[in-house]
Amino acid sequence: MSSEPLISPPLLFRWSVPCLKSTQAWSKSGIELGPEHQIPSFHAELAGGPQFAELRVAWNNEGLLLNLRVTGKKQALWCRDSRLDDSDGLSLWIATRDIQNIHRASRFCHRFIFLPAGGGELLANPIAQLVAINRSREDPKAIPRGTLKIRSEKRADGYLLQAWIPAAALTGFDPQEHPRMGIYYAITDRELGWQTFSLGAEYPFASDPSLWGSLELAGA
């Protein structure tokens, strides 16, 4: 008889994580966030999912700041601007309202994709893009090309990615009135697998906000 649980242990909880404020501003050299900004992977800790990356997130009134460090790679990156979902990189779902009781995304729900490469003629440029959420009732406002900022560095065993999501790219972003937001992430890698916030790829977190966690904007 199998000893595997009928449901994934993280599904039994409502997850909430703090997001610390940072006074740093985005620059051409990116931004570096300390370990106190790390967002955990409950799927790795409770369900034995892969853990090969460290995601750090900070906020201020200008928007959200991200650092992603992936380690343990032996193979080359696989990133294509024409195949965002299949590429190595980060998908980040953000809701500017804490809406865990709806099963279809509203206009306050966003999905951002950040790739360390895959753009340009040589596929060497990093990519940052707002993409549609499947089954969404209403999409967030469109943003001009170049609104999202990103830089990346290849490392011997992986890569470092830094990004900025300005407030203008987040429909309904208002930290003072709504300091509790929705969050989910999936770091995908063809070699290393999927590292996610709380549930594995068998769950429809990509289109169901009720499966996301909460991000508490500390100091808002």
Topology:
Blueprint: E1 16-19, E2 38-39, H1 42-47, E3 53-60, E4 63-70, E5 89-95, E6 109-119, E7 125-131, E8 149-155, E9 158-166, E10 180-189, E11 193-196, E12 213-217
Parallel strand pairs: 1-12
Antiparallel strand pairs: 2-3, 3-4, 4-9, 5-6, 5-10, 6-7, 8-9, 10-11, 10-12
Explain what you see.
The chain has 220 residues and is mainly β. The chain has one domain (47-217): Immunoglobulin-like. The chain is built from 1 helix and 12 strands; from the N terminus they run E-E-H-E-E-E-E-E-E-E-E-E-E. It has one helix spanning 42-47; strands at 16-19, 38-39, 53-60, 63-70, 89-95, 109-119, 125-131, 149-155, 158-166, 180-189, 193-196, 213-217. Strands 1, 5, 6, 7, 10, 11 and 12 form a 7-stranded mixed β-sheet that branches. A 5-stranded antiparallel β-sheet has the order 2-3-4-9-8, with no helix packed on it. A hairpin with a 5-residue loop joins strand 6 and strand 7. It is globular. The model has no long low-confidence stretch (mean pLDDT 94).
Question: Which tags fit this structure?
Answer:
single chain, 220 residues, mainly beta, Immunoglobulin-like, 7-stranded mixed beta sheet, 5-stranded antiparallel beta sheet, 1 helix, 3% helix, 37% strand
